[in-house]
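Re: weekly structure request thread

Next one in the queue (194 aa):
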Amino acid sequence: MPEGQQLLHIIQGCVQAKRESQKEFYKIFYGFSMAIAMRYCSAREDAMEVTNDGFLKIFRQLHTFEPRHGNYEASLKGWMKSILIHTAVDHFRKNNKHPFFTDITEEHHDDRDMAESSIDRMSYKEIMEIVQRLSPVYRTVFNLYVIDGYKHEEIAKQLNISVGTSKSNLSKAKINIQKMLKEVDNPCYERKAV
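Done, posted below.
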């Protein structure tokens, strides 16, 4: 990551639509942006599309960015993250061809039921691989709520669903993750169940 003054210079170049500055900015923040996009997309190609669409929005709006606290880079990343999440959700809504959400159920599950011993032994990459195996619907709600900290009301508004549907999808995502974690704990789990 470049020093503060160098980053400011790159950003000023991006605001002035200088291609070299945009290229440098893209190189610096590509990994960060792809990591966010991959949490919401099933395929790498989709994540690349979300990342590139996100960068277009970032370049168009960079002149409006104002740091919210003393750490300029952290503020910038927070601002970019918000744009990338919204871009990923828009991509999901635009490209999702099957029914968007499941029926609302009154099932409530305690978060402590998740197999904590499995999660404790897993790396971030392994955990994200399990999240990637969720259906697009469950993965989107799970990411927005658990990883990105949105409230159900905010998710419902973004995805144009009810709060109850958001809660139901989160619950079902957790159930699916719990099943996958049991498979990690006991690889023969699926064969025994047959």
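The two ends are 51 Å apart (CA to CA). The mean pLDDT is 83.
Next request, please.
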